[in-house]
Structures are given as structure tokens and as C-alpha cells.
Specification:
The protein has 253 residues and is α/β, with parallel strands linked by helices. It has one domain. Helices cover 40% and strands 14% of the residues. It has a 4-stranded parallel β-sheet with strand order 1-6-5-2. Strands 3-4 form a two-stranded antiparallel sheet. Helix 5 crosses helix 7 and helix 8 crosses helix 9. Bound molecules: zinc ion (ZN). Zinc ion binds next to helix 3.
């Protein structure tokens, strides 16, 4: 929690720091080592390779659907088991490019892409964000935050909140149990792994809340966030992510 506020401070100073560093090192593309004219951009050749998720998608989980069968259409998974969130939307399909963007953000602490990521997420879920009461990042356990010193979901939340002039609450959700790595677990194993691990910090009666995370893999983490917020009285909980797994083979991330 304290660390996420520290990260907020670092974010504010970033403008000055990045301008100074650009004098020495010209900015690099978000997706390659190519030099670009300003931070947070991608050269046209790779830009054209980005896979943005477009309609039609499942009304609940945002999974791409093969045919447009109406705005309320849901995928087979959501028809079988209704998720705890009202909707989930992602900007990009998870592929090698999305993976690089997320790893640079998450492991490398690279922040120059945040304004553009916020625009992409807005293109996928701007209306939902606009009518929400506040945004909240998917939480990270304090032991992990202590090691990494930042939560990439909090950075994304802040960038998206700024783009919409909305408040964001970094401490709305807390992770009370450190989870085992989710990599290689099935959807139901992931749900068990995060079940009860996330709590809302207080009552949010009647609120419409958007939870922000970097990637939607099986949705287990966002489900746990939604359950915690509903228990705390939230009227609606929506999830938005930068990327989303659309091929079963990518669930091993
Ligand atoms: Zn679905």
C-alpha cells in the first residue's frame, strides 16, 4: 500500500526525468530497439501487427466471438458459469507483442507506454470507465510489492483514471494471502488458488467500480476482486486489462 503511493510519486516526477534522459538517449519504440521521435510510440510496421480485440465479443468476459449474434451474446464458458464481474474488456489479444509490452511494464518498470495503454483500454471499455464511480487496481501481496516496489496494475489504473478524470483507489482491494504462481494452472485451479485471497478494504455500497489489471488469463484474479467488491456492497464491478488470452495454449503464462 505504502509502496504503491511511493510509486505514484515516482510517476509524477517521471515527466522531468524522461525529458532529461531523452537528451542523452533518444526514446526507443515500445516494441523494439528502434529509435522513435517521442516516448511511448511504436514504429508503423510493428503497430500494424498489434492485435486489438474488436467486436463482436462475449458481453460478459470479452472473449472474441466468431459471429455477431447480438450485443448480449455470451461465450460458451460464460453461458455455463456466470462470472462474478459484470463485464471484462481488454485492449489487445495476448501474443508476443502484448507479452513484451506487459513484461517491460511488469518486470522492467517501463512507464512510457502508460498513456497509450490507457487510450487503448479506453477504446475497448471507455463508456464503462466513464460511468464508473472509481477505478481500483488488482492488488499485489505486500511481500511482492516490497520486492518489486511497484504494482504495474496500479500504474495502469492511474493512467486510465487520469485519462477519464476519475478517482482511483490504490488500497480499495488488498491481497491477504500470497498466492502460489498461477502459471500452468487450469481455470478452476486458479479460482481455488486466489479464492479468499483478496479483500475489499471497506464498504463500497452501491458503487460502480472498474478493476484494472495488466492481463486477463483465465479471469480468476479479476473474479476474486469482483467477489470481494460485491461482498463490500458494490452495485457493479467491471474489469479492464491491457491484454487478454484468447488462445488456450497461452494460459501457461
Ligand atoms: Zn464469456
Amino acid at each position: 500500500m505504502a509502496a504503491s503511493y511511493r510509486a505514484t510519486g515516482a510517476f509524477r516526477k517521471r515527466g522531468v526525468i524522461s525529458r532529461l534522459s531523452d537528451v542523452i538517449w533518444p526514446p526507443r519504440s515500445l516494441l523494439s530497439d528502434a529509435f522513435v521521435d517521442r516516448p511511448g510510440v511504436i514504429e508503423p510496421a510493428l503497430w500494424n501487427e498489434l492485435k486489438f480485440i474488436a467486436e463482436p465479443v462475449c458481453a460478459r468476459c470479452g472473449f472474441p466471438l466468431p459471429d455477431d449474434i447480438g450485443a448480449e451474446a455470451v461465450c460458451g464458458a460464460c453461458a455455463g458459469r456466470k462470472p462474478a464481474y459484470d463485464s471484462a474488456r481488454a485492449a489487445l489479444a495476448y501474443d508476443d507483442h502484448a507479452r513484451r509490452l506487459i513484461l517491460d511494464l511488469k518486470r522492467g518498470g517501463r512507464r512510457d507506454g502508460l498513456p497509450v495503454f490507457a487510450r487503448w483500454i479506453s477504446a475497448a471499455a471507455g463508456e464503462t470507465v466513464a460511468r464508473s464511480d472509481f477505478l481500483a487496481p488488482a492488488p499485489m501481496h505486500w511481500t511482492r510489492l516490497a520486492v518489486r516496489s511497484f504494482n504495474q496494475a496500479a500504474w495502469l489504473t492511474q493512467a486510465l483514471a487520469r485519462a477519464h478524470g476519475k478517482p482511483w483507489k490504490p488500497g480499495a482491494l488488498t491481497r491477504i494471502k500470497r498466492r502460489k504462481s498461477q502459471a500452468g494452472l487450469t481455470a478452476s485451479e486458479r479460482r481455488r488458488n486466489v479464492g479468499g485471497a483478496i479483500k475489499a478494504s471497506r464498504r463500497f455500497a452501491g458503487k460502480t467500480i472498474v478493476v484494472v489489471d495488466d492481463v486477463f488469463t483465465t479471469g480468476a484474479t479479476l473474479e476474486a476482486c469482483a467477489r470481494a467488491l460485491r461482498k463490500a456492497g458494490a452495485a457493479e464491478v467491471h474489469a479492464v486489462t491491457l491484454a487478454r488470452v484468447v488462445r488456450p495454449t497461452d494460459i501457461s503464462i
